[in-house]
Automatic annotation (TrEMBL):
Species in which this protein is naturally found: Paucibacter sediminis
GO CC terms: plasma membrane
Subcellular localization, as worded in the UniProt entry: Cell membrane
InterPro entries reported for this sequence: ABC-4/HrtB_transporter, ABC3_permease_C, MacB_PCD
Keyword line: Cell membrane, Membrane, Transmembrane, Transmembrane helix
Annotated MacB-like periplasmic core domain residues: 19-189
Annotated Pfam families: FtsX (PF02687), MacB_PCD (PF12704)
Transmembrane segments: 255-275, 314-337, 349-371
Bilayer topology: Multi-pass membrane protein
Domain of life from the UniProt record: Bacteria
Domain ABC3 transporter permease C-terminal: 263-378
Protein name in UniProt: FtsX-like permease family protein
Length: 386
């Protein structure tokens, strides 16, 4: 076995420049494949981080149409509903438009109870609930702007005009890597009080209701009961699971995601063609050597294994190097895009696919040369020596 491995290594690096260039191509292709797949995964992070015990109820017309606040009490009476909270998209600007991050006005106690994955210290949770001007943020967002407890965070309202200032009362850590840590939450009551004074017609309205259920397998009938409750009213509802709600946003970018996935596969096909050309040239140059091996008694299978082994060895080195390069590339990309992707990490599945793609490239690239060389006649091969 050791002899065989040494033979593969010597054969693989016999033409150093060609092998090095092939490796560079493999590293670039595998790392690009991994990075593009990570971008697609990041797009679906909201779906992956959703809970099966939460439903989202919104206006049946559009998400931009609010629902009355008095729906909350009626929702609590629906069979199967365990708890109810609500949230409004705020859409404020922190210093400049470049500092985009999600901000929601929520009912603090009930909302945090529905999101146990937001791990907040008890004293910080209590301080947030007690302070009408308070807010809490995810760890990732706090680190980005260097915020600490007690800091004042001013936001320029777009949907809700004016400058709003919040006191940071807590910073949550995600229970899992896929938990969103890029949001800011503050009191829904604060903006509602302001709206009552300035724009009474816009007060007592919420963007979406978050509904907690204890039996996820009954999500569909509970959703139907909720929607039936408000059917033929002035504000009919559309209730769905949280994952379905998140998927509705992802579907808006479906064409872009398909394009990104197609490009990642095309990159692998291109490097496969380059690798196949390399192995074909290698086999042609060693035609006489393979004929000599056959003359010495080595069978066609040995010749084929030599070519497959050499190709897989190069592919494995390139694949592992590309995988390792993906990690710093992903970190740099995550830093560059900021909070655009709440969760951006190279998954274990992506790393496994990178290695699998590299090995597939190595196997396919060696298939034709190995088959051809295993069938070469000794006479035809030795004629090359002459």
């Amino acid at each position: 076995m050791l002899f065989y491995l040494k033979l593969l290594l010597r054969n693989a690096f016999r033409h150093k420049l060609r092998t090095l260039l092939t490796l560079v191509g493999l590293v670039v292709a595998v790392s690009a494949f991994g990075l593009l797949r990570t971008i697609v995964d990041a797009w679906y992070a909201g779906v992956e981080g959703s809970s099966s015990t939460r439903l989202v109820s919104r206006s049946a017309i559009s998400l931009t149409f609010p629902l009355p606040l008095n729906y909350a009490q009626r929702l609590k009476a629906v069979d199967g509903v365990a708890s109810v909270s609500w949230a409004n998209w705020f859409g404020g600007v922190y210093i400049t438009e470049r500092n985009f991050f999600p901000q929601f006005a929520v009912e603090p106690a009930s909302y945090l109870a529905l999101y146990p994955e937001y791990r907040l210290k008890d004293e910080e949770r209590l301080a947030f609930i007690r302070d009408r001007q308070g807010c809490v943020v995810g760890r990732k967002l706090a680190n980005k702007f260097g915020w600490k407890i007690g800091d004042q965070i001013p936001l320029r309202g777009t949907i809700y005009p004016g400058t709003w200032s919040f006191t940071l009362r807590g910073i949550w850590d995600g229970a899992e890597a896929k938990t969103d840590e890029s949001q800011l939450l503050f009191h829904w009551g604060l903006i509602n009080e302001t709206l009552r004074k300035r724009y009474p017609g816009r007060a007592d309205q919420v963007g979406v209701y978050i509904i907690g259920i204890n039996e996820p397998h009954n999500a569909a009938p509970i959703s139907q009961r909720v929607d039936a409750l408000f059917k033929n009213s002035l504000a009919e509802t559309l209730t769905e699971t949280e994952s379905a709600f998140q998927l509705s946003f992802v579907s808006m970018s479906e064409a872009i995601l398909v394009a990104v996935q197609a490009v990642s596969l095309i990159i692998i096909v291109i490097i496969m063609a380059v690798m196949a050309n390399t192995m074909t040239m290698t086999a042609r140059e060693r035609l006489a050597e393979y004929a000599t091996l056959k003359a010495l008694g080595f069978g066609p299978g040995f010749v084929a294994r030599l070519l497959f082994g050499e190709s897989l060895l190069i592919a494995l080195v390139g694949g592992v190097s590309g995988l390792l390069l993906t990690l710093p590339l992903a970190a740099a990309f995550r830093a560059a895009v900021g909070t655009l992707f709440p969760v951006f990490q190279v998954s274990e599945l992506t790393m496994a696919l990178q290695l699998l793609a590299a090995l597939l490239v190595g196997a396919v690239a060696a298939a034709w040369p190995a088959w051809k060389m295993s069938r070469i006649s000794i006479v035809a091969g030795l004629r090359q020596v002459a």
